[in-house]
DNA sequence: GCCAACGTTGGC
DNA sequence: GCCAACGTTGGC
């Protein structure tokens, strides 16, 4: 199983909306970056991801699960190569993990989230996943 | 194929 | 609101 981080501006799509979407989840559309696209195409059903609020909050607030693997993004123009996946909310973190906390943790110095801060869908390693979960109170 | 200009993202 | 990072576009 692989791990990911999904960024969303809560103004556009928040964790609350993700939870309300329930077991049906939502299509993670709108990715327009090739690195993020490649990550998305690696995502398998059952993979988990952190749900991160960018700009407002700047913290990891929950965990989502991939329920449908990459397929053509319906919001892309015809002929464009973009894809999306479906994800559903799994559980909230008892204590959100802020960007500041990630930066302050020496073991997370190499996390892709920090290395490529503009990437909207970075990968998370097994070790990083376990550590951030623990920092979040799980 | 290189690189400057420009647009966008996201942290501060 | 500003700025750094960085992806994309377009001229050469």
UniProtKB/TrEMBL annotation:
Domain of life: Bacteria
Pfam family, one: EVE
Domain EVE residue range list: 2-135
Matches recorded under InterPro entries: 5hmC_binding, EVE_domain, PUA-like_sf, THYN1-like_EVE
The protein's name: EVE domain-containing protein
């Amino acid at each position: 199983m692989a791990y990911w981080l999904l960024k969303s501006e809560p103004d556009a799509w928040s964790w609350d909306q993700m939870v309300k979407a329930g077991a049906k989840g939502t299509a993670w559309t709108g990715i327009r970056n090739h690195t993020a696209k490649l990550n998305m195409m690696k995502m398998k059903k059952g993979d988990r991801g952190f749900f991160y609020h960018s700009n407002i909050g700047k913290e990891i607030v929950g965990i989502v699960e991939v329920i449908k693997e990459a397929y053509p993004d319906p919001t892309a123009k015809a002929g464009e190569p973009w894809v999306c996946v479906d994800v559903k909310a799994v559980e909230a973190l008892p204590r959100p993990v802020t960007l500041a906390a990630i930066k302050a943790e020496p073991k997370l110095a190499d996390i892709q989230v920090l290395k490529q801060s503009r990437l909207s869908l970075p990968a998370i390693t097994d070790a990083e996943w376990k550590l951030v979960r623990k920092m979040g109170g799980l």
